[in-house]
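Input structure tokens:
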């Protein structure tokens, strides 16, 4: 410590503090920055996947409702609607099975 103070005698207080903090610990600071960057990246990826799954569910349900409305208005025949609904409900989605049950009662 005495030798460090003798070599840092020419530097100002802020420069001394900076030099003491980073001397010999550069690898530790680089590793910490890498770990923090990785955790931020991982968090963004996880949140993105959950949002991506939610959007798919909403889009499929909305499509089914729009096609159902088109069938009621006469723009789609019953066969066309059943074909579209079968394709949409073949996707693994819990919410669609509930909509399918309500459409069959119409």
């Amino acid at each position: 410590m005495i030798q460090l103070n003798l070599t840092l005698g020419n530097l100002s207080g802020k420069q001394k503090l900076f030099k003491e903090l980073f001397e010999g610990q550069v690898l530790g600071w680089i590793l910490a920055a890498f770990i923090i960057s990785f955790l931020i990246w991982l968090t963004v990826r996880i949140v993105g996947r959950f949002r991506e799954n939610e959007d798919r569910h909403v889009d499929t349900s909305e499509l089914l409702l729009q096609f159902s409305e088109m069938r009621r208005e006469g723009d789609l025949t019953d066969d066309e609607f059943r074909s579209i609904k079968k394709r949409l409900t073949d996707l693994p989605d819990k919410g669609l099975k509930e909509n399918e049950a309500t459409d069959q009662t119409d």
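The radius of gyration is 31 Å. Residues 30-94 form one domain.
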